[in-house]
Amino acid sequence: MLHFDHYMPTRIIFGPGKLEELGKTPFLPKGKNAMVVIGESGIMLQQGYLARVQGYLSEHGVRSIVFDKIKPNPESDSVEEATRICREKKVDFIVGLGGGSTIDAAKAIALLATNEGELWDYVASGTGKNKTAANAALPIVAIPTTAGTGSEVTPGSVITKTGSAEKIGIRHESMYPAIALVDPTLMMSMPPFLTACTGMDAFFHAVESYLSTVRSPNSDLLALEAIHLICHYLPRAVEEGSDEESRIALAWASTAAGLSLSQAVAISQHSMEHALSAFYPELPHGAGLTMLAKAYFTFMTERDLERLGDLTMAMADSIGLDLPEDQLTEAFVPILEEFIRSIGLRDLKLSDYGMKREDIPALTETAFQTMGRLFEITPTEMTAEDVNTIFEKAFE
Ligand code: NDP
Ligand code: MN
Q1: How far, CA to CA in Å, does 283 sit from each of 40, 141, 280, 286?
Q2: How much distance in Å is there from the Cα of 73 to the middle of ligand 2?
């Protein structure tokens, strides 16, 4: 039976060269003090993105301070440090410039800046205290420089509690960014491996939201659009990073998958990956998903999920394959494997990131304890034993 609740308050400004709009838009959040949050690698300075953002803000008479200590797979202590600065300097709004890690951190900082206490007070699972944030977050401007997470259009932020293996999504409606400024030219500087990993993250957002039991007609449309574009353009962008056409298509695919995700939520593959990247912080999120995929979707195929066949059709169509209808469900995993090979990720190994077979029971426990909610919207029942087996197979 059809029923859904659609809410998406983010203004999306999309297009090559659109970063410039930041200097002109009449929709910038109110106030004269902004904090620009960036990652610690220095790439935002090297590429000149930070200087441009600060310059455009100053065209509105906005002063900006920079917080530059965000690591990939961001941690709660840096969110709390930035929050103290925001409160002290009376920051009016937050700009997140970078990949999903930076944008997620910016969103968490925005929420904590207007609410008392520590970040884990507002986390609903694991050792979180599950308090409801009383106040809306500071307004957020999200400027993605990767095409993967879709965090610029979701109300979620994924943070790891410092010193623990808890990597958890925090969701609050006020964390939908006020503006998502998506300029594909900022993504041209991504090297091939980052392009491939982030593209796969967007791909699995689309796949998982299409399979999720809380999907809607709108999330389905966006998911199929994203899958189609990613299968067609990701190999090209990995091969030739300066190809503008593929960067534009992938930037939109990532935002489309994020929109789909914001309505339908990911399923348990994401619970399992968050356990992995919390245990092994060097593991890029998209690489973790890619290494789980064969085992995870083989399990799904065995449950004979018809909707998996729709996804095969979207992929096959995009790469010019014609398949008989009765083979669509079983064809999903082989086509996916071929696709992973085509973007150079076939030889990834979990052991290269530090995983040991003995870790599996703890990984499974963490997946259920921290992101257990996603198992409830997964279209088939999964026991701890099933999850153990999938981790085992992915490890092999
Ligand atoms: P990251 O933001 O972790 O960035 C990875 C690396 O790429 C960093 O070193 C970063 O540098 C660098 N980088 C970023 N942009 C460029 C560029 N244009 N050119 C060259 N290098 C660049 O990667 P992701 O975008 O994949 O984000 C992953 C995180 O997002 C994970 O923590 C994941 O769990 C989370 N996530 C959140 C979702 C949500 O809905 N909120 C959904 C899915 C994932 P620097 O650090 O200096 O910026
Ligand atoms: Mn993801």
Answers
A1: 17, 27, 6, 9
A2: 11
